Amino acid sequence: MGWITWENHRVGSSSDVPALRRGLAVLRLLAGRPGPVSAASVARELNLPRSTTYHLLSELTEAGFATHFPEEKRYGLGVASFELGSAYLRHDPLERLARPLLRRLADRMEKVAHLGVLHGPEALYLVREQPRQPQSIVSDVGVRLPAHLTASGRAMLAHLPPAQVRALFPSVESFVDRTGRGPHNLPALRRVLTAERRQGWAVEDSFVTVGFASVAAPVFDHGERPIAAITLTFRHLCDTPCGQTWPDLAKEVRKAADELTARIGGHPASG
Question: Which spans of this chain does the record mark as coiled coil (predicted)?
């Protein structure tokens, strides 16, 4: 039976399901490797018979989802996999899935809700939902802010490998200062990230704009990597850092972030 020979095979019978699942498992394995792999490695890692593995790889190659490198006797992703991924991104799935969650969060908590992603050492805001009583704040859609100062940025940074954080902030000059608050060097940033990772959410109090605070929680992909953050931003003014962590708000933000993680097929970080 051909796994993706749609034109000549009636799809939908129960016998198709195991083959489909195995084919998808092969694709995920190829996508998760830095380079091409041998059929023997695929069979071993997925605990498949060699004959089944070769059959699946042959069907995937014929359909364009895999590529065979005969000189290397290895397989990698094909052009069709790239086209499928590109089509996925054109649909803006993250924003579409997040928007109704942010809408409900903003209405329920009466605060501005954002979806942000990391863009180098900056937090880039993709979606903003206002509460019923609109509030004017700096973090609008398309705005980029220093990730080490924003709650959304640090919610994601806290779950990156230390080497990646160091690469994003290689020197003291990397630490932009807006209000005099927030981490000013890598050791200080690492201390904050460690504390916020253990806490489960990130906060900022007038780090970006005096008189505003934020609470953020990370969104994870299927590999437990942080790919976005959901944030609530609200008016709050104190002369010196208050040390507040707003756990009640954080509970709602984390609930929304966990729901978005589930919607995209992600898995929360295990540690």
Answer: none
How would you label 212-249 residue by residue, b for 16+ Cβ within 10 Å and e otherwise? bbbbbbbbbeeeebbbbbbbbbbeeeeeeeeeebbeeb
Tens digit of pLDDT for each residue in 184-225?
999 999 999 999 999 999 999 999 888 899 999 999 988 889
Show the beta-strand stretches assigned E in the chain.
Answer: 66-69, 74-77, 112-119, 122-129, 144-146, 202-205, 212-220, 226-235
Query: Is there a domain that residue 214 lies in?
Result: yes
Assess contact for 156 and 226: CB atoms under 8 A: yes
Structural domains counted in the chain: 2
| Residues in the chain, overall count | 271
The structure tokens listed for 249 are 């708000």
User: Tens of pLDDT along 60-76?
Assistant: 998 888 999 988 899 99
Of the candidates 262, 141, 153, the one whose C-alpha atom is nearest the C-alpha of residue 201 is: 153
Host domain of residue 141: 92-264
